[in-house]
Amino acid sequence: MPTPEDGDAERPAYYAARPGGWRDWWTLLHPPYTAWHLSYVVIGAALAPRVQTSRLIASVLAFFLAVGLAAHALDELRGRPLRTRIPAPALVAVVVVGLAGALALGVAGVYRVGWTLIPFMVAGPVLVIAYNAELYSGAMHTDFGFAAAWGAFPVLTGYVAQAGSLAVAPVLAAGGAFALSSAQRRLSTPARNIRRRAVRVEGSITYGDGRIEPITADGLLRPLELALRASSWAIVLLAAAMAVARLT
Q1: Which residues contact 243 (CB under 8 A, 6 or more apart)?
Q2: Containing H/E element for 214?
Q3: How far apart are CA 225 and CA 222, in angstroms?
Q4: Which residues contact 132 (CB under 8 A, 6 or more apart)?
Q5: Residue among 33, 19, 14 nearest 71 (CA)
Q6: Nearest 5°: phi and psi at 213?
Q7: Is residue 173 within 8 Å of residue 44, measured between CB atoms?
Q8: 217-247 vs 31-46: helix axis angle to the nearest 10?
Q9: Terminus-to-terminus CA distance in the chain, angstroms?
């Protein structure tokens, strides 16, 4: 009887490495998803009338600290969904250092960009804590909250960090990032449920020609995760192309 433990489905995520040592830190970073959402920062910045490399690097680093490190460490503290062996004190330290570093970069950004960056500097840590700690009965931990926090917000912040104000173009791009992040969530949620929660997968599909195809965990995961892989590469390459076009 097929189960989620069959073949590749035994890992908590398709990008997860074997447990232990440095591999746990790789898994904690959620590399394809972190790169995906950092790309939104680059896309937002590339839409600005003038792109400053130093501001772009600072913006990407701030989001890496807040999302790539702090948010994922906070998530791992809640029930060990990635099954890492990283000690809890180390995860707490990552949360504190990540958020503190992001805030420090935000303060420096306000000094260079102006007061218009303050709402984004404040909202970033609030979104990380509210979403990943599932505060207020998980009010932010929804499909909408994910798309807004990890899709639209990075685009808008990346633009404001460059231009000091908002415009129509980044708002439209934020809407696109919101939609893409919604699609990501719709693909990743069932994949995550199969990998981390399902204890048995069974059934079959009977076709009109009489052929019977068994339903397996790997068979359900493959189309979902192939789409996620392709999407993550697509967004990263798009952001890279926009950055190269604006900086060269």
Answers
A1: 42, 45, 46, 51, 56
A2: strand 212-214
A3: 5
A4: 71, 72, 74, 75, 78, 141
A5: 33
A6: -115, 120
A7: yes
A8: 30
A9: 56
96 near 156, Cβ under 8 Å? no
CB 219 within 8 A of CB 204: no
HSE-up of residue 42 (Cα within 13 Å, Cβ side)? 22
Structure tokens at 51: 């792109």
Nearest-angstrom CA–CA distance, 89 and 216:
38
pLDDT at 8 (0 to 100): 63
Q: Which residues contact 145 (CB under 8 A, 6 or more apart)?
A: 131, 139
- Find the largest Cα–Cα distance for the chain: 69
Count the neighbouring beta carbons within 10 Å of the beta carbon of residue 175.
Answer: 14
pLDDT for 10: 81
Contact indicator for 184, 150 with CB cutoff of 8 Å: no
pTM for the model stands at: 0.93
**Residues 73 and 30: beta-carbon distance below 8 Å:** no
Q: Is the separation of the CB atoms in 124 and 62 below 8 Å?
A: yes
Residue ranges for the chain with pLDDT beneath 70: 1-9
Burial of 71 (0-12, 13-18, 19+ CB in 10 A): buried
Contacts by residues 231-236 (CB-CB < 8 Å, ≥ 24 positions apart): 231/36, 231/180, 231/183, 231/184, 231/187, 232/32, 232/33, 232/35, 232/36, 233/32, 235/35, 235/36, 235/39, 235/40, 235/180, 236/35, 236/36, 236/39
